[in-house]
Amino acid sequence: MSTRVKEAGPEGLASALIASGALQSDWLPTYRAVPRAMFVPDRVWPGIPEGTQQGALIDRRVDPRAWLAAVYSDRPLTTQWDNGEHQGDEVGTTPTSSNSLPTMVFAMLGDLDVEDGHRVLEIGTGTGWNAALLATRVGATNVVSVEYDPDVAAEARENLSEFGIKPFLHVGDGRQGVAAHAPYDRIIATCSVGEVPPAWIAQAVTGGVIVAPWGPLYGGEAVVRLIVGEDGSARGRFTRSSAFMRLRQQRAEFPAHETYMGGQAWPADGVRSATTIPPTDVGEWVAQFAIGLQVHDAFWTIERYDGGAYTLWTYGLDGKSWASVDWEPGEAEFLVYQHGPRRLWDETEAAYRWWNGRSRPGFERFGLTVGPRSTVAWLDDESCPVPGAEWLR
Ligand SMILES: C[S@@+](CC[C@H](N)C(=O)[O-])C[C@H]1O[C@@H](n2cnc3c(N)ncnc32)[C@H](O)[C@@H]1O
Questions:
Q1: Among residues 73, 97, 98, 100, which one is catalytic?
Q2: CA 186 to ligand 1 centroid distance, Å
């Protein structure tokens, strides 16, 4: 028996991606032609499998084997923290650029449904891997990629030039698209949005496809596949769960806990009630999504205590409304306090009951219609809008 340790490599990852269905046969030659390793910097923080957190730094110069194993694993690789303001070896607060999860890269390219000669716009160049895949598939002159961060863009440009392909790179705010090179047959965003920018629809051909991770502020996110109509609107279903970095200009600023308490100790003058819904039930990713479609301008955090008990805090962006729900092991009813102009737990519970009462639909049953004046989310088809899921422009 050989004692050689098998090196991680592109074919092992290809097999895993094919087995999961993410990498279809039409993308396999392109996958093989564009080595992920050429688009991954020396220092990365790999995502932890089954989680949304990042592991410890892997530095190619210190541990080349671990680096290669990370590159050819189905994991996202964080390459920048806190818009580049955080340096050093430790993880920062917010991951702000990465080489995305390979499963997601190829599943989204599958959703995009490109054909030879299609003109494609990508928002979020990052390391340039996806731009290189697209350029290899449809031709470099047909691909335009936009990156907001100039340092990230400069590195992508270097990676692409070393690889030997030159899609058009634009440094700027991807919300504006790139009008000078429009129209596009396909538009793909590799950062998530809470609002589909009107420029993307305006710069797509009629019948064009927009693939973008979309999620409400409250939580939950999925890839939406929109088809642009003649009337200047775009509509389509969600295809799969996702967890991308937010487009920089759409990241929310959350007021601090103290803002809400007005100098008083909990429960301040909150109104007391009780619920039989364990707060854990509202935490599932798709449940968060269904709630977030209905409960706007709200976010939550968990405060944990010894022994497993915890409080679910929900806050409104108004800086005034808050709700706390205390979960205790073994209890069937949980203490609720609500304060401010909104009754945030009542809103959350009603939204959860709506979703639960429809047999807990998955992401794929939801869809979005983005019109010139508003965006509406629906369940199964446009005739069934989700209650309250309308955002005016
Ligand atoms: C997940 S990474 C993209 C991964 C990339 N497609 C790849 O193949 O490596 C998301 C990128 O979106 C960029 N981004 C965020 N907001 C942006 C904006 N408004 N316009 C363009 N790019 C943006 C981030 O700087 C980041 O590099």
A1: 100
A2: 17
Tens digit of each residue's pLDDT (9 = 90 or more) over 17-41: 999 999 999 999 999 999 999 999 9
Asked whether 130 lines ligand 1 (CB < 6 A), one says: yes
Q: How confident is the model at residue 365 (pLDDT cuts 50, 70, 90)?
A: very high
CATH number of 10-248: 3.40.50.150
Gap from CA of 243 to ligand 1 centroid (Å): 13
Q: Where does the chain hold its CATH 3.40.50.150 domain(s)?
A: 10-248
Task: Locate 144 and state its tokens.
Answer: 């335009």
Q: Is 2 a catalytic residue?
A: no
pLDDT reported for residue 224: 98
Q: Closest residue (by CA) to atom 27 of ligand 1? A: 126
CATH architecture of 257-357: 2-Layer Sandwich (3.30)
- pTM for this prediction: 0.96
Ligand 1 centre from 130 Cα, in Å? 11
